[in-house]
Amino acid sequence: MKIVHTVNDLRAVVKSAKKAQKCVGLVPTMGFLHEGHLSLMTAAKKNTDFVVVSLFVNPTQFGPNEDLESYPRNFEKDAILCENAGVDVLFNPSVDEMYGPDYSTYVNCEGDITKVLCGASRPIHFKGVTSVVSKLFNIVSPEKAFFGQKDAQQVAVIEKMVRELNFDIEIVPCPIVRESDGLALSSRNTYLSESERKDALVLVQSLRLAEQKIKAGERNAELIKQAMKALIETVDYAEIDYVEIVEATTLKSVQKLEGDMLIALAVKLGRPRLIDNIRLWV
Ligand code: PAF
């Protein structure tokens, strides 16, 4: 596996892969890799011939009071994991390499899709995500790019951006990877204390409760959300950011469940704010 730190070096490696007729796959990450990221690399290995992983903690997607400085990092371990996963190139640029002095060009997906759910409490987040992902798409020009469905809103926003800006790239969403007890994997789980880790199961339990109610015939979104919130609030320090039921592609809120539904939540549990979701056809 090659490790490159500059845009020019990455372009040169990708150019020779393309010259050899290889189908290029991109897995964008912010590092501190876990099984969720590895599942994206496995999907990329299966579906493309040349896998590029980017590892860049992107400052433009963090708000002023968020965890940019303390975001967990372990480059040496991540590089070994990528190598073992059969990755061809690991791109690890500096902030300066990605955003030089006087940087001022952004890609912003306007409209409600970036204002609802996580966008309501993280107003600049998706502008940072779409900007950095566009830059990576322009640098690598992959045929396919792989994203985890845990960040369901991120996938929906990137899919919209790709459609509207005519990027010739297939977005491949990959299923959420969970611990054996159901907790969705996240680099931020590392912030949880042992007891918070146990309490965090209430998130997946509330999603499963919603699923059970839907299977039993409930279609009233408000009643389902109320039951989910009541369960989450059994953890007395849990701060609910949102519990929402939306149409899965547009992220428009629904009153009556019908069609492709996303049930999504964000809850602050001690230090971390955790997100989780399920997508189901009703
Ligand atoms: O999902 C992430 O880790 C990040 O938002 C991404 C897509 C790598 C952009 O920085």
Task: Characterise the protein shown here.
The chain has 282 residues and is α/β, with parallel strands linked by helices. It has two domains: 173 residues, Rossmann fold (3-Layer(aba) Sandwich), CATH 3.40.50; 91 residues, Pantoate-beta-alanine ligase, C-terminal domain (Pantoate--beta-alanine Ligase, Chain: A,domain 2), CATH 3.30.1300.10. It is 38% helix and 20% strand. It has ten helices and nine strands. It has a six-stranded parallel beta sheet, sandwiched between helices. Helix 3 links the parallel strand 3 and strand 4. Helix 6 packs across helix 7 and helix 9 packs antiparallel against helix 10. The radius of gyration is 19 Å and the shape is globular. The N and C termini lie far apart (44 Å). 33% of the residues are buried. The mean pLDDT is 98. Pantoate binds next to strand 2 and helix 6.
The biggest beta sheet reads:
6 strands, parallel
As for the CATH topology of the largest domain, it is: Rossmann fold
Number of domains: 2
Strand line-up in the sheet with most strands: 1-4-3-2-5-6
Number of strands: 9
Q: H/E order of the elements? A: EHEHEHEHHHEHEHHHEEE
At CATH level 2, the architecture of the largest domain is 3-Layer(aba) Sandwich
Bound small molecules, which ones? Answer: pantoate
Percentage of residues in helical conformation: 25-40%
Which whole number gives the mean pLDDT?
A: 98
CATH superfamily of the largest domain: HUPs
The rounded Rg comes to: 19 Å
Number of helices: 10
Top CATH class of the largest domain: Alpha Beta
Calculate the terminal CA-CA distance, rounded to whole Å: 44 Å
